[in-house]
Every structure is written in structure tokens, then in C-alpha cells.
Amino acid sequence: MVIVMHKSANTENVMMYNEKKVNEGVATFFHFKNTKSANPFNYDEKHRLKILLDIEDENPRAWHKCFHVSFNPSTEDYKILNEATIKQEIENMMEHMGYGHQPYFVYRHKDLERVHFHVVSTRIDCVTYQKLKDNFEWLKIKRFLHQLEEKYNLPLKEKPQEINFRFSARSRNIKENLENLFKHLNEKDELTTKDLYDQALLTFKVEVQKSGRGHIVVVLGNDGKPARYPIRLSNFNNKPKFYSKENRLTLQESVEREQKIEKSKDMDLTKVGVIARDVNRLVERSKWQKKESNLRYKTRKKKRGKRH
């Protein structure tokens, strides 16, 4: 089983792609949820598109509004999962992803060697019109997929180089798999802070904890307690980027750079303050000199008047 998150910014383009496949006869309407019309597939494509665009129009500032997932069972998976089960599991997936209340459409494609399904919705909440949080959608999909494979005991076809993100008390090659996880997360540009990185680790039931002067890596069970004996972080070749020595040095350099910039700004502000003070003094002195000059002029004028 493979579930793919598609980076599709434009909802109209995605909808029209699926509608075109239906018109070409290589896709069919499969399922829908949470629409005002009893059966939106009884209407034309503009009606279905309008359901999503009307919601998105309420939040014109949001970007990447389209939610687009493909649900790809293998031929072996199809022998275990019938279409009624697939329909139910797509609903479960949408609930798991936080889109259970959103209107969405499912198209059944048969343009490849195997049947697969495309799910289209919107990331703009149909009630609040705020954008739904999509930071960790790729992690949620992986989590749901693992649960699905365990639930139905689906056959696994993992290539030797494929990363194994399953961690439990009986996991083999735990150190190697953890290094694969660190390497995978290190490449994610979305994880910009240590807090986000730690949250991503917890999604895989992994936690980095402080221990003495260093850190340990702990695999957690369903109860949140350690399921494996912890491993010293220093024993890993590939380390989490927010815990590696190189990254700490980079962060320290970044902080020092920012401090220098702030200090430079403070110095510039001090210079500006000194200049402003000197200018004010010149202005005041100029006013005083002008006033004194006017007094002298008036005095001379009075003296000349008395002589006459």
C-alpha cells in the first residue's frame, strides 16, 4: 500500500484533472462526503468545483489551499481490501488527517496497471474559514499507513534501501533504523526549530532526552514509557540536526552574528542620538545668536534715535 501527499496548490486544476479522467472513461466517481447536495455526482463538474471554491473564496490570503491525496493499493492489497473497505478506510484517513468534517471527493482511477484513488478537498475550514494546519501532514499519512498495514496485515514490499520507521520493543537493527529516521528528518525544510523536530520524533515514538552531560535516544511504547534500552546519542553517526555538534556550532555562530548585528544597530542608534543632540545644540545656539543679534540691532537703533 502506498499513500501519497501531492503538492497541488490549485484546487481547480486538481479537480479538472480528475474530471477530465472521468470524461475520458479512465476514472469514475467513487465517493464523496459532507456536501450540501445529496449526491453532487448527479450534477456537472462546475457544481462540484463550486462547493470547494466557495469555501476557499472566504480566505483569499491563504496559500496552497488544495488537499490532494492518492490512495494506492497494490494488486495483493486488493485481494484483502474490497472497495467497501477502501471507502471506509479513506473516511478513516480523512478523520485521521483532520479533514473528516470537510467536503471532499474521491475518484477511482484505472488508467494505470492497478486501480488507485484520488481524494480532493480544501485546507480552508468549511466552518471557520481559517486554514487547517498542514505542518505534519506527511507524518500523519505515514502514521496512518503503518496502522492500516498492521490492521489488515497487508503484505510489505520494502526495498533494502527503504527506510524503516517502525519502532517497537522487538524492532531489529534499531540503531540503523533510528539513524535513517534522523537522516530523513534532517532533510525536511519544514522542521525549522528544535521544538518542531522533537514533535516529529514523537510522531515515530522516539524521544531525545538529556542524560548527564549528553543525550540519550529513547524508543517509547504506546504507554509513553521506554520500550527499549536507551542508546547514547554519541553512538550515532547520523545525529538529529538540532543535537549534533556541527549544528550547535552553526546555531551558536548564527546567534553571535545576530548579536553583532543588534550591537551594531545599538551603536548606530547611539551615533544617531549623538548627532541629533549636536544638531539640536546647533539649532538652539543659532536661535540664541539670532536673538542676541536682534537685541544688539535694536539697541543700536535706539541709540541712533536718541542722538537725533
What is the approximate shape? flat
For the report, how would you describe the main beta sheet? 5 strands, antiparallel
Number of strands: 8
Overall mean confidence score, pLDDT? 82
| Class by alpha and beta content | alpha+beta
Q: First CA to last CA: what distance?
A: 116 Å
What string gives the helices and strands in order? EHEHEHHEEHHHEEEH
Low-pLDDT segments, ≥5 res: 158-162
Share of residues in strands = 5-15%
Helix content: 40-55%
Query: Looking across the biggest beta sheet, what order are the strands in?
Result: 1-3-5-4-2
Radius of gyration: 33 Å
Q: Number of helical segments?
A: 8
Which helices and strands appear, and what pairs or packs with what?
Layout: E1 2-5, H1 11-24, E2 27-33, H2 45-56, E3 66-72, H3 75-80, H4 83-97, E4 104-109, E5 116-122, H5 137-152, H6 174-186, H7 194-203, E6 206-211, E7 214-219, E8 231-232, H8 245-307
Antiparallel strand pairs: 1-3, 2-4, 3-5, 4-5, 6-7, 7-8
Helix pairs in contact: 1-2, 4-5
